[in-house]
């Protein structure tokens, strides 16, 4: 988001800045309020996230106005342009990054602090969007526990500020048509956006190539506003009298009817975007046209339009617009840290308090930090700010590389517990042994894929299923009775998934869409066919969500294919899970444990009953299939707990078993196998 600069008298050595427009600050207020309300109270404003797209248009308009006018007057200076960007953006951002780091030092577990360090480094380097894009995948932590998630949009804006002046300068020097070049890049970016949003939503959302069209829409408005082309004048001349007669009862000044209509239509588009777009929409895609076009119409209507001068230029909206940048920076870390400390969505009172605190901090940041630093003519401000940003980014990177500094005094006593909370940093997903032996090039485009083998020797134990199957691998390879087997864990989908139904969906980077399940099924069949050494297949990750007769039939078909190769099939019954992050069961600074992590008996019974139809059907049709109840890991005669001997049995909020849990489970399995599958045990 770009703070609209004050008027600077044009001189030979200074950039030319646009005349201040209060209505644009008002539009900023609409944008930031929609984002804040969406983040704090998502059920109130489900499409409030489109406020970011409004910011993109505003930034594109203001920056391009500066660039176009300065180039036209031969007064453009790269050094001055970037120095002003530094003084505008760095002060508030530095304050938020440093505050987040200090708070995280005292409150966050090692895995959380490691991720925060990574995001601080990304934020300081203005590549947060690339960092978050790289993280997106099956094991990615939820957005609510990433305090600096919102910096992705700042990354896109800064990348635009780096690239766009260079393109414009080169275009101007070569005497190319600026509008044509702008429109061409706009078209290419928009085409990338709509063509990739369905099958690669993360890339489309985070990367600048599919977002620049929104900023460039503001650039086009800036160009047309400055040039006031004859084509636009002709449109105004023809449409304005018609609109004046049809819509207004009194004669309007020339051009006012069209401007009023423009801003009103723009406002309606913004409202439609905010109310109709949801997190399930293929966004940005075509949906982003609503907030983008709405902002374009409002800005191009000019400050004399009724809505702009009466509503958007009101004192309250202008005040909020003035603090919109620090408010955007502050609100999300406060809400996110509250979510982390509470280990659940904070109460309404806490979220209301968080918004109030964010507004207060934003005002203080604007008054005490931003305004004084932007004022004055000291030559030292820019290099000092750049040096501080490098320092903060380096601190974040070191924190990331040193695994979240687990030796920090506030969390040192819980270091052993914290070591299990690895979140997305699960090291047992893939290895070269498996990838080279069983290449599956389609998986290169998947957000996640499991392919890990314990040995170069022919496979004897084949672990199949979702990530809930892959979580068994570390326990097996660290158990002396099991690790003499050659163990292979491969796949991504439930082995009983409906491949035909999946094929009817668009192929995306999610492995269980499109033809992905069918291709994985063929890969597994080929492995079984070519590896006569396989003696056992272990299946985990089967559904408990109302499995119908068709699901059971598909599972029976897969089992029959395995048994036809004289393979013993062992099914791990689905493991228990709770509807909260078990980090809330452990103390952290500022917060005592919120839960006991004990699952109510009625929930345990309901969970087990859901799998009973599958077990009954398979036992009848395939009596040689063995079922292992892995919930012995959680349950004893008295209770079922997600904590065992003081250690967490889950490693993340998606209820994947921790490495400690996997090791404990393997020991329970060995005792079961002594009676039910002794051949899998090798002394």
Given as residue ranges, the uncertain stretches (5+ residues, pLDDT < 50) are 2-12
User: Which secondary-structure class do the elements indicate?
Assistant: mainly alpha
The overall average pLDDT, rounded, is: 90
User: Radius of gyration, rounded?
Assistant: 29 Å
Which of globular, elongated, flat, extended, rod-shaped describes the shape?
Answer: elongated
Distance between the termini: 64 Å
Number of strands: 10
* Biggest pleated sheet: 6 strands, mixed
DSSP helical segment count: 26
Strand order of the largest sheet: 1-3-2-4-5-7
Give the quaternary arrangement of the chains: single chain
β-strand percent reads 5-15%
What proportion of the residues is helical, as a percent range? 55-70%
